[in-house]
Write a structure and sequence with these properties.
The chain is an all-beta fold. It contains no helices and eight strands.
Length: 110
């Protein structure tokens, strides 16, 4: 992530992306405690296998477009555009089907 110094504080810009398409999705932990983890994820053309997590995950897509497949519930494929947010409850199986120039902000918690 890009760092900028303004005064005594070190700032980070969540919208900064690498100048190249990374081979793998990039994950950076922005903050964490015993019960919460906040991540920035950068993806472009990346997909995933199935997740079945022990944590709730609040997902906000900041840039790009993405499709998630969720098991259970009425909607199986969800298309996300910038500003869209979704809560994925723990143990709800899901996977990333497609991504295009995505910056994600994800909050994991119990």
């Amino acid at each position: 992530m890009s760092h900028t110094e303004r005064g005594e504080e070190m700032l980070e810009n969540i919208f900064i992306r690498p100048n190249f398409r990374p081979e793998k999705e990039l994950v950076e932990i922005l903050a964490e405690s015993a019960s919460v983890r906040i991540e920035k994820i950068v993806s472009d053309g990346h997909t995933s296998g199935w997740y079945d997590q022990d944590e709730n995950e609040f997902v906000c897509l900041l840039t790009g477009t993405a499709e998630l497949e969720l098991c259970g519930g009425e909607q199986n494929i969800v298309t996300l555009r910038p500003g869209d947010c979704i809560l994925i409850e723990k143990h709800r199986r899901h996977r990333v089907v497609s991504t295009t120039e995505c910056n994600w902000l994800c909050v994991f918690y119990d």
